[in-house]
Amino acid sequence: MNTAMINRIQMKHSNLSLQALDKRITTLPLKRNLSSIPTSYFPGKKQYRISSVHNQKDRDDVYRLVHDAYVEQGYAEPQKEGKLVYFENLDNLKETTILIAHDGDKPIGTVSVTLDNKHSVPMDGAFIQEYEAIRQENRKIAIVWRLVVHKEYRSSHKLVIELIKNAIIVASYAGATTNVSVLNQIHESFYQKIFGMRVIARSNQLISLSNLPAALMRCDKETFPKKWLDHTQPSCRFVS
To answer: Which domain, by its residues, includes 178?
Structure first.
């Protein structure tokens, strides 16, 4: 994505204000169990909707979305069942929530959030030292991971923005003050300008995925762009 396109996106959404974070998260019961977030918390706009995953059908749809996107981009080999599951043990933790986006009945995108915990975290081994250094800061960390958008919905970037925004809202609801993600280096400037993320480290050889020039990026609650939450909206919804 070039600079001009990023600037257009920023200008289009400049009317949004982000102090409403606490207002939004107080619409949910204050629990650290992310798997308990109700589907109804993420009403969509028009035919689109973002919801939390609470059944095996939606979970399988997530695995298929990930499989098709990663195989298409050369990050993984095709699997016999057409599903790709990695860090599988995390999907059953109470510290994890999975979000899925639908256009009507069609699954079109997904992102997952896992709070730092003593069991396991979705951090590639290439960045484990950097992640441990962030842990030493004694901040509450959430990992935003498994970000995938169906190829037919990638061109406008609206869905990517909404998935990440909702993921960070979910993490903040659970008390996280720092969000980290392993993202494609190609899109670093997009994440920096739209979400205020910064690069912690880079690697051209991940352990969990192939052929992905990756960057470990970080977004702190204190520096998250204040335009990304809207005082007037009670919950997350797609930007028109």
So the answer is: 3-228
